[in-house]
Design goal:
The chain has 2 domains: 3-237, no CATH class; 238-307, no CATH class. It contains 17 helices and no strands. The protein has helices at 3-20, 31-37, 41-48, 58-72, 76-85, 87-95, 104-111, 121-124, 130-146, 156-163, 174-197, 202-209, 221-237, 239-244, 251-259, 268-278, 288-301.
Amino acid sequence: MCGYCIEGGVLLDFIERELTGEPQALDNNFLPNYLQETMHLPEVLKQTQDFANFPWSLKAALCRAWDDWVTAGRGDTAASVEQAYGERAVAAFLDALEGEPGNRVQALIKRLDYRDPSAWDPVTSHPGSLLDDAESTLRGYRDGWLLGQAKEFSDPAARLRKTGSMDPLADTTPAGCRRFDASFPVVFFAFLVLAKHGNRSALLQDLALIPLPAVPSFEGYDLWLQRKAFITCLSTYGIPFVLDNFERIRYELLYYAILRQAIRKDDYPALSERLAAAGYEVILGVDADSLLQLMARWGKSHAGTAL
């Protein structure tokens, strides 16, 4: 499996089941994915603390805590994360973050006091020059990771000769994956700042629409950021953003947006018409028919919950 498979085959189903209140068993292998999207983060943290992969899910949990702080001014999620993983583990994670030298986003993250709401004032109320560094961070992510300008790719033919395997997950070198893992939290935080204070930035549209140059990892953190950017663009521009960029949008993003009620029911007819005209080609597990069925189901029986 890859990040695309898990998003389309596991995560979207998890979200829909959560929204409808249907009981579901959680799988240790998908814990970071669940934490990215669950509406009940403290409860899921308690439920999964004995999972073998729990210590490696801190990145997703901490990013969710930042999201609640920046977008809603809530510190209770950060308290739940620190209680679940331990103060020492959180401190070690923050110390290991990587980013551009002198970047104020990274510097701010490292010194934030999660118990002091006033410490978040530069983020939530008066971003000032922080916004410039957020944009710089996201431009680096767009150019280096999404457009592949600074990304290390391995040679598939050489890899096949050496290992006899053509695993697409290995298209990005191990060193490249490590750098992405170490820098992603800073990128995510920069996104939160820009989405809150500069939501009409063209950078956010790039993050929502540029396809990944390589197959994403199981955790799919880059896919998560794309989902977040897509919802931000929908909130800012509405259904015209979808209709104007339809050929560039993965069907999984549309499915996700319907679940999160970022596409309003009043806009279902326009989207349905566009899907019908596009045909019923299967794209990575979600096809036009799946989307039409979801809109019919959601429109009649359930009002999705935004997150």
